[in-house]
Structures
1.
Amino acid sequence: MARRRSNVIYSTIPNFGEWLTINCVINAIEGVLPNFYIFKRERLKDDYIKLYKLNTCMAMQKIAWMTIFLFKEFLFFFHKSIPSGMSLSNRNLLILYGHGNHVTLETIEHSKDFGLDMITLPSHTSHALQPLYVSCFKPFKTVFFKVRDATMSKNNQMEPNKIILAGWVDQA
């Protein structure tokens, strides 16, 4: 059984109010899967990820947080992103951080039907219980902020937009 882990990274750009949620998935067997971005916006206006990695997915939400609806969309995206596929005979495990308000019993039961089991870590414990927090996501955040700071100082404190924000993630 393959082990998969997911983490959501919240980032803000000081003084500009751009919010972005990135649902990153690290696969112990097949490496990093494409990102699932949630931008703060009520309607789709532009393709903010058009310049970035193939198969990356973008969603809009008025506060840029994961919701029950977006989590279902993420699971569909996750299912089709697995190169080796998922089935009842090829089960996968998704370990989620503890923000469980978007994980419903219906979602869990539906996921089991296509070969995905989920474990949710207790809230506010990912820093201690999730090894990827220390080994992948914390270093990612550090590099992300360095890329952001370098770009902003090089371009005289330009006002970042959603396309630039996704680009910084891609660089980091």
2.
Amino acid sequence: MQSEARRSKLLVRFITAFALMLLGRHASANVIANHGGPILGGAGNPFTIYPYYYGSGWGSATSSSVVNEQLFLTNVASFISGKYVPPGINTFLHQYGVVSTASVAAPVVNAAPTPTTLSNQDILNAIGAAQNAAPPTLPHYASNVLILIMLASGFSPCTSCDSIVWWGYHRAAAANEYYAVTFADAGCSSGTPSCFSLVTSHEIFESTTDPGFSVSYAWDNFGPPNIELCDNAPDNGFSYMGSTFPGCYDNSLSGNPTTTGYDPPTAFEPISFIMADTSPLY
């Protein structure tokens, strides 16, 4: 008689093969290529997201809007870290080398700035000012640091100032100097009310797989089309712990968007996933 474990393995293989067969009928060109650049969360290299809430619209570090975003970021880090994943299943990020844990630092809030239009240089100046303050409110750049500047409602990107600025983007200021930017007023194609969170998770996922974008490329498809992991991917791709993440491209599914966040494509089911986890809870 087959053991329960063997039956489970065979079932997973069958489901995976069936899913790939179906996906093969709708082959996608969105396969991401590895260009050799750095990634965040590589083997033995845990990284930390440092959120910087910028603008008077955020209020204080204990405001409900900041608390809610911190909870969302904790869920993003938890997913990246592979929390609650049963044996034999990985996050879709795992195949790209994102195999170490992620964490979220305490919020840094600068409620002094009032809404305005910001260029990328303005963003870099704001980060630099926080890093060089006495005492510093943001850490200096490092290979395991992602600075996430989150612009309050009312701020807008100066898209006419330089071509890289948009409602959500990430870049490297130099080697091992990683930052991402999201605007609270960002729009999504789906018009979902959680759009800011979708844009934020989009940029974090791309920052893990291609943090050196513009300096040293990692997982990117230079095209056509020229895309990173989540560019032009569907909004509302999959849910995790009550948060919704975009359906970024999954090379193991022929470059089609992930609908579960996992490989094999297994839907997140909190009870069984939590029971499989033996590490401390956040």
